[in-house]
Amino acid sequence: MKKIDIKTEIFEIINKFGPINFVQLVRKLKFSPSENKNVSKALIELEGELKIFKNWDGEYYTPILHDEFDGVLKINSTGKFGFVTELNENELIPAEEIRDCFVAKYFFNSAMHDDLVHVKVFFEDKTKEKTFGVITNIIERKTEELIGFLVSKNSFVDFKPLDNKFNNAKYRISDVKVNAKINDLVIAKISKIQGDFIYVIIEEIITNKTDPKVFFKAFLEKVKVPKEFSSVMDSELKEIPKSIENENFENRIDLRNELIVTIDGDDTKDFDDAVNVKKLENGNYLLGVHIADVSYYVTENSEIDKEALKRGTSIYLADRVIPMLPFELSNGICSLNPHEDRFAISALMEIDRNGNNVKTEIFPSIIQSKYRLTYKQVNKFLEEKTLLNENVELTNMINLSYELSKILHEYKTRQGYIDFEIEEPKIYLNEDGTVKDIVVGERGVSEVLIEDFMVRANEQVAEFLTSKKLPVMYRVHDAPDEEKLSNLENVLNVLDIPFKKPQGILDPIKFAQIATEIKKYKYDEFIKLLFLRTMQKAKYTSINIGHFGLASEFYCHFTSPIRRYPDLMIHRILRELVFNKNMDKLSHFNDIIEGIANQNTSMEQSSVDIERNSNDLFYAEYFKNKIGQKFHAQIISVTKFGMFIEFPNKTDALVHKSTLLDGEYEANETMTVLASSNRKFKIGQFIDVIVTGVDLVEGKVDAVLEEFYNDFLNNDKNKKNFRSVKSEQIRKN
């Protein structure tokens, strides 16, 4: 019988009788056993043509095409499945209408994580209740290089990606450009993809498996954290003075005789803000906020400026800082180090006893910080009421600062500001960079004091520029939207806290009144977290809508030009259009400001993600030595696959619903309760758990309820320490 006739007959039988297994199919065909080989070949071809599929039971059936679209493939961290989400260029498709579909590993068809693909969506069966996707075309490859280990396989050197999302393919090393050896963590450039094989060139050695920081270093490479500054700016850096002894400051107001101080963390190296406070004869306060004059040294479109714009912000990791500006500036001439003359831009604000701003002056200055104080030092002083640094004048000034801070705080509270600052983990490291301890970070009155002063300065600079009709890169923050308020309502009601989302326009004062009412029932770290979740993300823009979270009508970032590009931009506008009165540049700033604002919003979010994800790696490392230990934890969110819990030190873990061994658990529609037929867990509830494993690559922690721990181990030995086994075996293999 001709092959084409076999295929046609096979298809017709499967279409009529499917799902049907191989034995049943052969019986229907009534072929001789000698034809079985041809039947198998025909089945493979029909599968390749997407005319038939095989289910989990090994049965063949004819699929029903449901849909097809272009989208981006995101592969699960296990590498076993993924989802294709419809491409939404220019955000023309409403979020609720964006299509997506599940794709099993064997339907990737050589597509890789993040590739732009074309997917066909089929119904699983004739009930048309469930669907699955098959990738039929790769439109654009997105991955050019991979990070992984060189491993020994069958006496050959092989490449194994660190990220499981890329482990569904077979790799072949086509070239090695460095002296790499087995167990080295390397960067591999993809040279070609041919059939089921991906050919790579080993380009660079990152470190070796024996390095205790191996996974952290891999992460830094993966997210492309900037390394060293380019040599193209060397000539500019050579021109940067180490002091201002020979500089011209005739156009600056000399404040070097004023008692100006910096107040920062113990480990701070770059000081970009300093303060002083006086009491005036009329009873008002004079607040001075003095900010490093970075724009004097970093001119627009210089090589240093281009790199600063590219970075957008400094990135603060547990073991290092990735600075926006080179050391010569950030820790050198721009840093307001004690007892050294420095150029600054100063904002002097007269404030009455009710916190109202009476008058503001903004000007270039020369200052000298008299003391380098720390938050811990000032907090201790304000608590014990002793003599600070054995200096009466300094003691009086700090007391006056605290007095003004309370006035400013009360003023902001009347405007609708609510302090939703939540406790966060503080990572302490050993000398070799490994985790020593993780505790809840402290935020004392001096931290709040500096925040109050900086917020007032940022508000006044934004209002000043607005009043002059000059361009401003505002820091804006919109009111919570309907969906977030509905989520808040759902969660609070689950917690038995009566709350009905407000109708109409929500302003900060109304929102503060809501928070005040809820405080009567309960107000802890979890409630503050819920309120924070209702907030929109702040962003930079040239269009002012106010800052809802701070209850500010005008707000910009002015106080941190060493570590944030938007602040440098504000300084540059002040310098050119206000101090130098160079109005020829007005149209220039108007033209560029929105583009730079959008870029910095994006870079800020990127840096936040990097900081958060890097912290997760340290958290996982910490809990690696806590596997088997019991913790009292709080449920902070519910998902379709389980619940996330928070430990006392404010780190978190996942309790997967498969580890709840007393029933089948499902999340409710509002994702506030995980329930079975006889039990439920709700958001905010405290439970006792035992840590079961960590993933040192992904930075994840697993836990199970204490009551299920022994059964969990006994019922499935393979689950024991799953995450830790996975990451530890990477070291050993």
UniProtKB/TrEMBL annotation:
Signal peptide: none annotated. The keyword Transcription regulation does not apply. The keyword Ion transport does not apply. It is found in: Cytoplasm. InterPro entries: RNase_II/R, RNase_II/RNase_R, RNase_R, RNR_Ribonuclease, S1_domain. It catalyses: Exonucleolytic cleavage in the 3'- to 5'-direction to yield nucleoside 5'-phosphates. One of its GO terms (biological process) is mRNA catabolic process. Keywords: Cytoplasm, Exonuclease, Hydrolase, Nuclease, RNA-binding. It comes from the Bacteria. It is an enzyme of class 3 (hydrolase). GO terms for molecular function: exoribonuclease II activity; RNA binding. PANTHER family: DIS3-LIKE EXONUCLEASE 2 (PTHR23355:SF9), RIBONUCLEASE (PTHR23355). 3'-5' exoribonuclease that releases 5'-nucleoside monophosphates and is involved in maturation of structured RNAs. HAMAP family: RNase_R. Belongs to the RNR ribonuclease family. RNase R subfamily. This is Ribonuclease R. The lineage of its organism: Bacteria, Bacillati, Mycoplasmatota, Mycoplasmoidales, Metamycoplasmataceae. The gene is rnr.
